[in-house]
Design a protein that fits this description.
Strand content: 15-25%
Number of helices: 9
CATH architecture of the largest domain: 3-Layer(aba) Sandwich
Distance between the termini: 48 Å
Order of helices and strands: HHEEEHEHHEHEHEEHH
Number of domains: 2
Structural class: alpha+beta
Shape: globular
Helix content: 25-40%
Number of strands: 8
Radius of gyration: 22 Å
């Protein structure tokens, strides 16, 4: 047993099998070999997202009603006027572990990972949480946990109809005027990766809406980086900051060079 392993054992930690310790040159070579696989994974993820954008749509014909902070709302209302909607079913209700002080530990861990919603909203996309807990309990939970995502109460069969009556999951929707369509569904271990702006957008039918993506003809796309902004500085319809455009263009060119 090595000294470090012996120290681990003495301190109560289970000894582990250590990988080789190498020189900086050999470590760099090992990292570059791994980087080839990392890039392959990234390209595969981009390819999968492109296939999602070509998934068939399912029309939502039933009328669903939720309770919100200001009263009854429809599924269409959950879009908040935006084009895309991601709905996460979180378990917070009587009978769920943690009630009434907490939501499900797993759903809560996921809620802690949700990125600032301004960036998602800037891509015409809304994220909403839904549970069966009454609105006063949801408001209390959000205040305790410092969460600010929109969170509604299920009042009908929405959870059963969309595969989230027994387990958590993300349902993705798009609207065409007043018509709503289901476009994708992520659950089980797929939920582990959710929380970043990119993971949410990659699940949507319009994607990140950047010109490098392989999307169907006519889908909205803008140059990468240029639409990024401070979360308190987005202005709908405003042109990108010219100085930031210059910086982002220079960065892209540097990576190409």
């Amino acid at each position: 047993m090595t000294k470090s392993s012996a120290d681990d054992h003495k301190n109560g930690a289970a000894p582990i099998h250590r990988p080789p310790v190498v020189s900086p040159k050999d470590w760099q070579a090992a990292w570059e070999e791994m980087l080839v696989k990392e890039k392959a994974l990234t390209r595969a993820r981009d390819t999968l997202a492109a296939e999602r954008r070509r998934m068939p749509w399912m029309a939502v014909e039933k009328t669903y009603v939720f309770d919100g902070p200001a009263g009854k709302v429809s599924l269409l209302d959950l879009f908040e006027g935006r084009r895309q909607l991601i709905v996460y079913r979180a378990f917070f209700e009587p009978g769920v572990h943690g009630w009434p002080d907490h939501a499900c530990p797993g759903c809560s861990l996921g809620a802690d990972q949700v990125a600032h919603l301004a960036h998602l909203n800037a891509r015409d996309t809304t994220l909403a949480y839904i549970s069966r807990a009454p609105q006063p309990d949801i408001a209390r939970l959000k205040a305790r946990m410092d969460w600010d995502m929109p969170w509604y109460t299920i009042t009908d069969s929405f959870d059963a109809d969309f595969g989230v009556d027994e387990w958590h999951g993300h349902n993705v929707f798009i609207r065409d005027g007043d018509r709503v369509f289901r476009t994708y569904f992520i659950n089980v271990r797929g939920d582990e990766a959710m929380g970043t702006t990119w993971s949410y957008l990659d699940a949507t039918p319009l994607g990140r809406q950047e010109v490098w993506e392989v999307s169907p003809e006519g889908y909205p796309q803008t140059p990468p980086y240029q639409w990024w902004n401070w979360h308190d500085a987005y202005v709908e319809g405003a042109a990108p900051d010219q100085r930031w455009v210059e910086i982002s263009d220079a960065g892209q060119q540097a990576w190409k060079d």
